[in-house]
Amino acid sequence: MALASGVRVPARALLRPWALLWGTTLGRREPAAGGGGDGERRFGSQRVLVEPDAAAGVAVMKFRNPPVNSLSLELLTELVISLEKLENDKTFRGVILTSDCPRVFSAGLDLTEMCGRNPAHYAEYWKAMQELWLRTYLSSLVLVAAINGACPAGGCVIALACDYRVLADNPKYRIGLNETLLGIIAPFWVKDAYVNTIGHRAAEQALQLGLLFPPAEALQVGLVDQVAPEDQVLSTALSEMARWLAIPDHARQLTKNMMRKATADRLLRQRDADIQNFVSFICRDSIQKSLQVYLEKLRQRKG
């Protein structure tokens, strides 16, 4: 949120929220679906399921925070832990990110994390969002997004951080950054990633209007790299992964870092200020009231 800061946040609120969870949330293991070697087991946490294929050097990471994979603090934390675990295991060279919830990749930020809480919580939440983006955007692994459902706002942010994006060919599955429709704005580092992906003019228009693109338009503007039949999104992503893994890791990783470092460094230099700006913005009475109204509409719709 690129607005002037006003609320100061204690330093302890900026500590890594997942530090206490390391080694505990990933304890459950279960046999992998569809076979695989005897040593290959799915692992994960309450909200993230990882299906490894050690022989291929690829893991499929599934978001499972029903009903719509809202990016709660817990989900953000568990995604970072899962990705870090895979990066530290030299068996794996690539990860497919996809959803375990029907018809939605991720609905984006969890608005309940941004409404009716205290400034320290808002700071912790935004720190976790920053960390997930940095972890995915700069990952040494090949990341392919298999977008098997709607992908607005924060879901689009995760997809933008990947190396390649495959979107299901369903007109209901739209992708984009629609923050302005809720009276909020995308942070500068998300804007930078958007510009890098679809160009300045297209990003300027899409961000101001809060556009969500159906598959054909998303492909045309360059927001996704491929559109596939809904039942072939994962297989298409896996096929594309093989093309990326054919490139020597060191050359690909160095090239990726060369292309992305300047964008990531801009956030790293201003990370604390970005958190303070977010907290100041989200604490405004007008923003809190807007979020409350929107959340109430969602509750009435569910009722």
Characterise this structure:
- The longest helix is centred in the last third of the chain and has 21 residues, at 249-269.
- This protein has helices at residues 73-88, 119-137, 153-161, 188-198, 200-209, 215-221, 233-245, 249-269, 271-282, 285-302; strands at 28-31, 41-44, 48-53, 58-63, 70-71, 94-99, 103-104, 108-109, 142-147, 149-152, 164-168, 175-176, 212-213, 226-228.
- Helix 1 (73-88) runs parallel beside helix 2 (119-137), helix 2 (119-137) runs parallel beside helix 3 and helix 4 (188-198) packs across helix 5 (200-209).
- It is built from 10 helices and 14 strands.
- The protein is an alpha/beta fold.
- The strands form 3 sheets. The chain has an 8-stranded mixed beta sheet with strand order 1-2-3-4-6-9-11-14, with helices on both faces. Strands 7-10-12-13 form a 4-stranded mixed beta sheet. A two-stranded parallel sheet has the order 5-8.
- A hairpin with a 3-residue loop joins strand 2 (41-44) and strand 3 (48-53).
- This is Enoyl-CoA delta isomerase 1, mitochondrial isoform X1.
- InterPro entries: ClpP/crotonase-like_dom_sf, Enoyl-CoA_hyd/isom_CS, Enoyl-CoA_hydra/iso.
- It holds the Pfam family ECH_1.
- Belongs to the enoyl-CoA hydratase/isomerase family.
